[in-house]
Amino acid sequence: MDYFTRTKIRSIILDEKIKIGEKPIILGWVRSVRQSKNVIFVAVNDGSCMGTLQGVISDPDSFPDLEKLSTGSSVRMVGELVESQGKGQKYEITVESLELLGGADESYPLQKKRHSYEFLREIAHLRPRTNTFGAVNRIRSKLAYAIHKFYQDRGFYYIHTPIITASDAEGAGDMFRVTTLDLENPPRVDGKIDFNKDFFSTATYLTVSGQLDGELLATALGDIYTFGPTFRSEKSNTSRHVSEFWMIEPEMAFCELDEDMQLAEEFLKYLFEYALTECADDMEFFGKWIDKTVRETLEGVIKSDFERITYTEAMDILVKCGQKFEFPVGWGKDLQSEHERYLTEKHFKKPVIVYDYPREIKAFYMTVNDDGKTVRAMDVLVPKIGEIIGGSEREHRHDVLRDRIVECGLDLDDYDWYLDIRKYGTVPHAGFGLGFDRTLMYITGMANIRDVIPFPRVPRWARF
Q1: What confidence tens digit (pLDDT) does each residue in 323-364 have?
Q2: Which domains does the chain have, with CATH numbers?
């Protein structure tokens, strides 16, 4: 098959060490076949980039496989690289050998026309072959690498936290249960399910966050980050919600909230700059066909010094602004997207970090301020969507954390291990979470989170 000697189409299109007269081996899928007089033009794409490479066949009778060739077919194409005589491409191949590897009959659903995103979600196994979803997946791959590069270059250690857990990191209860019990006849004690008979001898769930385990590692290694799948069983059918998504969660020991905010700002700017410079060809596609303001939006974040204000200051601005909001504003209420967007788009006209939120609306693990009313939480807000990062300084005082767990109605026995690191060499530590998939939406301009995940899981849908 010549796999290791093939030439990627990306290398040819971007002039990477390719010379006129060479005879590259191209392995890919046919995007189109057309005939002009006695010449056949075959456009092939191999997934390495947006573009196709055109093969020119001037003697069709010498290529018996041509009769079976159609859109979607896979081929091995060899020929001399020449400057193109037509418009739309710099190079083409005068085909000397064309082998059909896998045919595609007339039922192939991705014929050369525009398809709705709704239709393409139903054929998620084939949609990566389209221009849009090919670009989405290439950017997804490159930004995953960028995440590791950012943290590795700064001395952070990559930690794999459990996917199966017995604790709820957020206290929200929207968790998927993991069990081997017979669902039709589970064992019971006093009328309740006896989880002691389950595989782990306790009730277990898919994780909603790697944060709590990440804290344990940070208090041993200093600076760590997690990057993995998380799960929420919340029944939300919005364009921003899915049941399985990926989170990046750095955690730093000997760190307080100011340093946490600084890392979050640097991280966002790094990812956006990386997308614009290292994914330039795919970003050009998104700017042309998906959202013409994508580059301007990302550059606006990169060039800004993020504003930092307290929650109380944010509420004062919103109460006095005279703007009519769908959701009411007032101290003690959570910020909604419309409030966050007002702050970033109209008042400050740049990203904003809001910190020191009321303790009643935030999770149990956040450091309580001296006023007793607020916690050392922060949200990073950006224009167009609002919150993109949420984080906090973690409560490192044993007695205060213990009281907060009880206050939030959680079982102390479930968090004895979490309390231990407050007993043995406790230190201030902080971290945050960035949803990878929502970040990809922001970078690409894609409007629905289901379209930046190869195989999305949402209520009533778990195909592929």
Answers
A1: 999 999 999 999 999 999 999 999 999 999 999 999 999 999
A2: 3-113 (2.40.50.140), 127-172+208-451 (3.30.930.10)
